[in-house]
Specification:
By secondary structure, the protein is mainly beta. The chain has a single domain, classed as Jelly Rolls (Sandwich), CATH 2.60.120. Helices cover about 10% and strands about 40% of the residues. The protein has an eight-stranded antiparallel sheet with strand order 1-4-13-6-7-8-9-15. A seven-stranded antiparallel sheet has the order 2-3-14-5-10-11-12. The longest helix is centred in the last third of the chain and has 13 residues. Belongs to the glycosyl hydrolase 16 family. Its EC number is 2.4.1.207. Its main location: secreted. Pfam families: Glyco_hydro_16, XET_C.
Length: about 270
């Protein structure tokens, strides 16, 4: 039976990733084990994994843009390349100086998203590196912040809800300007006098089932540590930690938005019963 690593094995950026655009806006440190993304009024930048993956555990240590970061978005996500795409998102929404970052998560299945949840973090994510992780297997998708589960998206295919299981995904990250929506719905604009905006990364970790873009199944299905029975659900301690996040730090959950969604989505009802 697979055993989860106590600590993810970090590797240099270039082993698994390549810059996606604006190569001159990425700076490398410590032999490529740390990088910084830069955003100015001309462009942002980003990177993507070389490989595509069907299921796995993916994590990154990120130190977010400090100071006045209003209008900026730092994203860390998995996405397939098809029109009816699957996607698993961390999006860090910047704010005016002194106001907390908002962490937005979303899950797209078969091209359908609109499953936003938003939380405040219980620390200042600009002061130091923190770990942001995604566990994705056939049973659930779990978002972690420093090993604390902040969201679970269960496989509810039996309820008619699509679940990402047959489209491989690449891992992406980007720093970009989204002041048309990111901060207070677009009311707060990016202050370019504060540019360049810098997000720092280290701890580049992928432990997934690597496959071609066209792959429909994982050849090692059921054989990896993140596939085992103990990872098909949260344990009791993790459920308590998730309840703590929901009660103390959640500021928006699409499952509770009756104005936008008069009928609760089936996966929300199951989540309530967990």
């Amino acid at each position: 039976m697979g055993v989860p690593p106590r600590r993810p094995v970090a590797v240099p950026f270039g082993r698994n990733y390549v810059p996606t655009w604006a190569f001159d806006h990425i700076k490398y440190y410590n032999g490529g084990s740390q990088i910084e993304l830069y955003l100015d009024k001309y462009t942002g930048t980003g990177f993507q994994s070389k490989g595509s993956y069907l299921f796995g555990h993916f994590s990154m240590q990120i130190k977010l843009v400090p100071g006045d970061s209003a209008g900026t978005v730092t994203a860390f996500y998995l996405s397939s390349q098809n029109s009816e795409h699957d996607e698993i998102d961390f999006e860090f929404l910047g704010n005016r100086t002194g106001q907390p970052y908002i962490l937005q998560t979303n899950v797209f299945t078969g091209g359908k998203g609109d499953r936003e949840q938003r939380i405040y973090l219980w620390f200042d994510p600009t002061k130091d590196y923190h770990s942001y992780s995604i566990l994705w297997n056939l049973y659930q998708i779990v978002f972690f912040v420093d090993d604390v589960p902040i969201r679970v998206f269960k496989n509810c295919k039996d309820l008619g809800v699509r679940f990402p299981f047959n489209q491989s995904m690449k891992l992406y990250s980007s720093l970009w300007n989204a002041d048309d929506w990111a901060t207070r719905g677009g009311l707060e604009k990016t202050d370019w006098s504060k540019a360049p905006f810098v997000a720092a990364y280290k701890g580049f970790h992928i432990d997934g089932c690597e496959s071609s873009v066209e792959a429909k199944f994982c050849a090692t299905q059921g054989k990896r540590w993140w596939d085992q029975k103990e990872f098909q659900d949260l344990d009791s301690y993790q459920w308590r930690r998730l309840a703590w996040v929901r009660s103390k730090y959640t500021i928006y959950n699409y499952c509770d938005d009756r104005k936008r969604y008069p009928i609760m989505s089936p996966e929300c009802k199951r989540d309530r019963d967990a």
